[in-house]
Amino acid sequence: MTASAKRKTVQGVTLCADPAREDCFRVAQLDSEMQKFENGMSEDARREKLHRHMNNEMGALEIAAQCLADFPESPWELRMQLARQAFDESRHVRALHQRLRQLGGYKGEFPIGNFEWAVTNVCDTLAARLAIQNRTFEAGQMDLLGALRQIWRSVGDERTAEVLEHILADEINHVRFANQWIRKLVQADRRLLLKVASAVRFLADTNSVLAGESAADSAETSSEQHKKLGINVEDRRHADFSDDEINEILRQAGMSSLASAEAQA
Amino acid sequence: MGLILREKAEYLATFRWLEVFLMETLARWVPTTPEMEVKVLMGRHIWDAAQHADALGKRTFELRAPLHYTLTPLPGYLGTMKKLASVEDTAGRIQAVYDVILPSLLARYQHYLQNSDSLLDEPSFRVIEGILNDYARMRKESEEVRAELRETLVFDPERAQRWSRQENAINDFVVRGTGSTLAREATA
């Protein structure tokens, strides 16, 4: 049985069972099990952010790798993109682990969650997985990173800001190839559109059941976080989102006036 | 013995299969291997194997075979590779890839170079020399991870030697005389 075929149940929702983790990690199933800090940029909170992000990148690596394992018949050019993504995510894990250690942290210091892996791998088509992981979670991370690097700079941590800037550049490529390939795959087989729509619906339902929160950074892609941190419009354009799609995302995030301005620009 | 043009394409197509197999094996192992440093190591090398397969697949087209022509190895060798890919423990997986598969492929690539023409088949030489350089880096990176995890992973050298002996015992691994499948219109 492949890693993506194993299942677990969280609050009545059937999800993909967790990927392998070392014993030092405490795996949370709900966001309430994650550690939170009153001061979002205290020293402890900074380490927790890096630790959480490191595990999310590990999850992104695992999802890209699992796509290669599960869909051997997909177009070779798309498999090349997934292989490249695995390489990129590996470098992100290393960079964040390195930075975590520089700040006195260590593997397993805080609880982790594997929400993105658990939701994405329930999908049985590559188009749907790309729609969830790359086009939704990673695009949400683009929005986050657009704002977070400035927040780290504002507390004088230039090195972490630099790490996040490079990660952001890579994520744009991952979102772009997903956007382009979803279009191609759907053009070739219109039935995939239904699969993609079902996957997006499943993600929304799961988020809703799990109290609108996940055990990972993906929680911060919610409309509340988008309102707070904003939509990274420029990088979404780089990632090949159309103007209509960007305006829709702005509207969903409660930024209709900005969406209008974008439309006029 | 020198390889004729068709045989060169068959060798490169078989090497391509092996690189794709390596890519897929590493990809399958990433989520099922607990150690973060090993996941990272494998994640990096997924991309290396993909690039090798890509370069080999483009070269097969230049040798009058289909683009990304791929040939499954002979059953004996295929069985050995599948056995190595079924290893469950982390130390064994590291040994299977970095102590057995990469050194054995290196020897088989070198055998190809010895039986080809460095001028007439220079594009293949360039591709293979690039792959062998990557292998050296990949093995060096695996040594660094082993050193980092020396307190948690236990390696059994005898097991790796046994696997290597089994691999070395297989001489022929390329399906020969595929004939009509080399036509341009064959499915890539």
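The first strand of chain A starts at residue 7 and ends at 10.
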